[in-house]
Each structure stands twice: as structure tokens, then as C-alpha cells.
Amino acid sequence: MQRKIRLMSAATAAAALALACHAAGAAVLQTFGTGTAVGVATNTAHFDLNTTLANDWVEDGLLFHFSGYGANNGCGYAGVDCYDAVSDLSPAFAGNYMATSGMNAYISVRKADGADFYRIEFAAGSGYQALNGYWATYDDGLRTGSGNFSMARGTVLGLGDGAGFDEVRYFAFSAPNRQAGYSAPALDEVRVGLPEPASPALCAAALMGMAVLRRRKRKYA
Predict the structure, then answer these.
(1) Whole-prediction pTM
(2) Per CATH, which fold does 28-195 belong to?
């Protein structure tokens, strides 16, 4: 009897974990605020050493690429705003950061080794006075999620997906709810974190555990 109770309890726990695995990979979750997406950071980037706004910049295992213009009106250097006077410091960033501008211009974030990541957050900026951001996540070239947001410049955007993704693209437009047009994105203080507890290794363990439990049930039935 006790053996059956233990088997039932283990089966319930494994099933709950399997459901959590499914839910974790169902969609990309958007959050706002430092620490809302990333607790323990495995990779970080601050761009302090990128004094020339170099493209395809690699820092702490992260690869950054921008598709538009570089050094537009001095943006990207020591907190200078993209479109305002050179002496006007950005309210979002205090040091060097990654920025670009152009038609449908975006900043891409990947891992330098091409591996997937599951949680990321960064301070989102814009060359415009208002921040009207748009993000899209990709895995093996296929878009896995996207979303618009309108917040104060410098707001920390967090993205998480238990299924993982290998690229994030960030845009900033002049008006809300746009996905195309002239874009002037900027970002700083990038943090990438560990996978959610329910993915991916723990999910595999849960599925293996359920298979073992099914065999034991048949044995003791």
C-alpha cells in the first residue's frame, strides 16, 4: 500500500512538472524591471570598451549586430542622445551603449557560440523622445515571438521562453504599435540568465521519470 502511495505521489509530481514544461515553452513572456526576467546572470554586456560603436561586437560571450547606421549624430558614445544636441545626455544611459538608426533598423543580440538562451533583459532606449519599442525573438531563423511596448526611455525590458531562442531583435519607432518604418533603437546593461527551472534538462528528467513510473505501475498492478 505504501509503495502504491509513493508511486502515486511521484507520478503526480512528475505530471505537474511535465505540465510546467509545456507551459514554459508555450510563449515568450515580456516583463519590465531589473530582475523580472533574469535572476542570476550568466552573461552581461555594458559596452564600456566599445569606444568606436563597432558592429558585430562581442562581449562576455554575447554577439551584438546593428542593421542601420552607426555613430549617427554621435549616438552610442558616453550617453549622447541620438537626435538631440551633442551635449544633451541621455536620461537612460550614462556610458557607451549600442545604438543605430535607419529604415527598419534593429539591434540583434545572440550568443557568440550560436547557442540558445532562455532569459534576457536590457535597458531599452530610443533616438526619439518617447520610447515605442518592438521586439522579436527567433530560433533557427523562424520568429517565435514579438511584441510592442511604450515606456519611459531606459526601462528594462525582460524576455523569457522555456523553449529557448537564439536571437532577439530590438527596434524603436516614432509612434506606438509599429513593426516597420524608420527605427532608432539603443540598448545597454544587457543580462542573460539561466533557463527556467522547468527547462530544458529538468523537462527531460520529468519525462524519463514518468516513463519509469508507468513501467513500475504495470509491474505492481
Answers:
(1) 0.74
(2) Jelly Rolls (2.60.120)
